[in-house]
Design a protein that fits this description.
The protein is mostly beta strands. The protein has no helices and eight strands.
Length: about 140
């Protein structure tokens, strides 16, 4: 089994669809890495991952908004293609099995950046990100 893990920000609000009677939440995650090249110049590289989360727990979709920090884990798939300029390109996709919201809900709720919520096919739980954050408020309705 190949497993891909990514931590990054959503590039846009998610899209909830029904395909053949099953629910899928589609979203894009961007991870930006900063590094120095061989000449010592600071460079930046952003990797985009297209994610598909097949789940019956669609209530999480309301929290998957542009800019939110998430952790996603699942099975990767890459596809090569030719872009508009007829240059070779590739896309990276992830079939999500585990999803964690790492940034709080800033829309009218109590934002708490010290908590994360875990969503997978088996159970849903809220875990404190820091060992000493016993008072972490859960703003999720489930």
């Amino acid at each position: 089994m190949i497993k891909l893990q990514i931590v990054g920000n959503l590039g846009a609000d998610c899209v909830l669809k029904e395909v053949n009677g099953k629910n899928v939440i589609n979203f894009n995650v961007a991870h930006t890495e900063k590094f120095k090249d061989s000449q010592g110049s600071l460079k930046e590289r952003t990797t985009w991952v297209n994610c598909a989360y097949w789940t019956d727990r669609t209530a999480v979709a309301q929290y998957l908004k542009k800019g939110k920090l998430v952790y996603a884990e699942g099975s990767p798939d890459a596809e090569a293609y030719s872009n508009k300029e007829n240059q070779p390109a590739a896309t990276l996709r992830l079939r999500v099995r585990d999803l964690q919201l790492l940034s709080g809900n800033s829309e009218g709720g109590n934002e708490n950046s010290n908590s994360s919520s875990n969503y997978n096919s088996g159970s849903v739980s809220t875990k404190p990100a820091a060992a000493n954050s016993d008072d972490a408020a859960d703003d999720l309705p489930f």
